[in-house]
Amino acid sequence: MTATDLPGALSRLRAAAPLVHNITNQVVANFTANALLAIGASPAMVQAEEEVEAFVVQAAALVVNIGTLLAPQRRAMQLAARRAGEAGIPWVLDPVAAGATAFRRDTAHSLLALRPRVLRGNASEILSLLGEEGGGRGVDSGAAPERARDAARILARQHGLVVAVTGATDYVTDGERMVALENGHPMLTRVTGTGCTATALVGAFLGAGLPPLDAAVAGLAALGVAAEQAAEGTAGPGSFQVALLDRLHGLDGATLAARARLR
Amino acid sequence: MTATDLPGALSRLRAAAPLVHNITNQVVANFTANALLAIGASPAMVQAEEEVEAFVVQAAALVVNIGTLLAPQRRAMQLAARRAGEAGIPWVLDPVAAGATAFRRDTAHSLLALRPRVLRGNASEILSLLGEEGGGRGVDSGAAPERARDAARILARQHGLVVAVTGATDYVTDGERMVALENGHPMLTRVTGTGCTATALVGAFLGAGLPPLDAAVAGLAALGVAAEQAAEGTAGPGSFQVALLDRLHGLDGATLAARARLR
Amino acid sequence: MTATDLPGALSRLRAAAPLVHNITNQVVANFTANALLAIGASPAMVQAEEEVEAFVVQAAALVVNIGTLLAPQRRAMQLAARRAGEAGIPWVLDPVAAGATAFRRDTAHSLLALRPRVLRGNASEILSLLGEEGGGRGVDSGAAPERARDAARILARQHGLVVAVTGATDYVTDGERMVALENGHPMLTRVTGTGCTATALVGAFLGAGLPPLDAAVAGLAALGVAAEQAAEGTAGPGSFQVALLDRLHGLDGATLAARARLR
């Protein structure tokens, strides 16, 4: 995956308009759905234990996010993830604040064991999944992504998946290859759920049939470039959030390729 | 109900400022509440089994939306709907993605049996309630509203209620009369929960005392006209969503009557 | 606390960037998190019974809001509030629609008994907690804040806490001192969850180490002044809500001191 592959990835997503099944948190449900619609996917939020297995097999990809985890939702996540695995439906895990409590840590590990194709977190979350000290400030990341880069590589090898660590620089690795992305804008840290949005966009590209590493890079690049465009001329986080949806909607492949800073 | 009746309906809603009790989904709760406030109603989101019966009798109307259905919420919906029926409080049902799983289909049918005054769905949802194939792509509608128009008429007669099928053209029927609305804008399909918003606005007009067919037509016309205004000069779905609330707030009866395309 | 103390309070908040643990309602979760980020705090929404005690001790303050109360969430609130009290972590209670049902009233009283540092409600909610008739229109306030002012003083003395009653004029009292605030804008009543936002901002100032009366005054003043700025040049409640986040983010101490109308 290089910058020149991004226009094709975006076209493929928009042609497929993949149904993305989200089991996500209450804070970001609306924004996640709108971001998925804006990029060209078709979101659905379905979370009851009674129906997630029947629903996920209709989807092109599954997004699991433990942000406002409750015990029944945890069971639904495990059911959906297991069924997705059986049916060959790719899924991505967002282990929000995984290191903050035993409940989150245990849940994140139980989900990791069900083999997501991609794991997307901030440095603290990724470090905590490896058992390292990373911070305990909820959803904030106290640790530098650079330190988490090595943890990401180890996790990727241990679990046979792609790990994306996001921060000022994003790192995406399958345990062998390592892609660094330099896009984005500090305003992303002043709006809630932009990390969750990154995860959902990765899910959309997975749903469009991209391999996990490519899907992760494309999702993060799309968000980063749209964020840079959104930050131009906006007055604060409220208008930035609105402009981010506009920019995801208006994103074109040529701009994405020209502005993406991958290495 | 013709276009010339719309200013009176809107005035009546704003004078009544009806308390609208919503048992709705997590994705749209915020936007629904803001849309109800913008049009001039007073929203409340109350969903615990322990209190919905005590609350609904204080309300002017009830809105039931199964978008992110959970089993305890289903029980709350059934309790509230039954109590609303007993107390003569009108209510509207939004059977989100009713055809996607047995859990949703069964829930939708159990709620239909409790006799809402209005049922509002997209073509897929309405068709699936009649047992026809309509699509299974979650909240998206894969079926043409025209095909669902006949299904709506049958459902309306079977259950003795008003059915509103929304899409590029909306159809509202009580089983005898059929009103078609041509308002709206494609951008409505790029923002999550605009169908849910339509349902909530129908609830607001029911709460203002309008008969079900009139309430359904007025709610859909208000949303459609506000959406057309909102789409003028907005750059994408983020700013469209913001402008939609501004336009619902600023909507005046004369504009509504002039722009509504009913037949 | 006078207007000249406000710049110092705001600086202290931004330097501390306190982790604010919210157990709040589904309608406002996103906006609350964004408002806390905008003012300079670090929000986390954590609500499972299994983890709230482990999480709250890592936070600088706790915000408890019963807006879309469910029984498991009530237990989580009680666990978190008790643990916060034991650990000396300040917390604020928002008794949304406390008078509307027995379930809410009982919950609000059980939480009051756990000794929040601040109670923030509208006139109806505060009156209902004293057992007086105040209205039953859900989250709306039917009663004048002036009448609730005296109820606030009584409640503050009974429970040994600070009570903030918000409305066209806000009143903050510890049972002895009484501060009136004249900031704000009518548009605040056309956006859902602005009262909840006030409560969350009070939580942020508590988390920055301010005494309860000062934290309550600072939180309400910040929201009121930002709302006045946001209302300038916005076309309706949609754009007002966006501008409110921009203004909370851009708020500076000098403007806050100059525009705050305390007495």
From TrEMBL, chains A, B, C:
Question: Pathway it acts in?
Answer: Cofactor biosynthesis; thiamine diphosphate biosynthesis; 4-methyl-5-(2-phosphoethyl)-thiazole from 5-(2-hydroxyethyl)-4-methylthiazole: step 1/1
User: Which CDD domains is this protein grouped with?
Assistant: THZ_kinase
Tell me the Pfam families matching this sequence: HK
Please state what class of enzyme this protein is: transferase
What GO molecular functions are on record for this protein? hydroxyethylthiazole kinase activity
Top-level taxon: Bacteria
Instruction: Give binding positions for ATP.
Output: R120, T166
Transferase as a keyword of this entry, yes or no, is yes
Described by its record, this protein's role is as follows: Catalyzes the phosphorylation of the hydroxyl group of 4-methyl-5-beta-hydroxyethylthiazole (THZ).
Protein name in the entry: Hydroxyethylthiazole kinase
- The gene designation is thiM
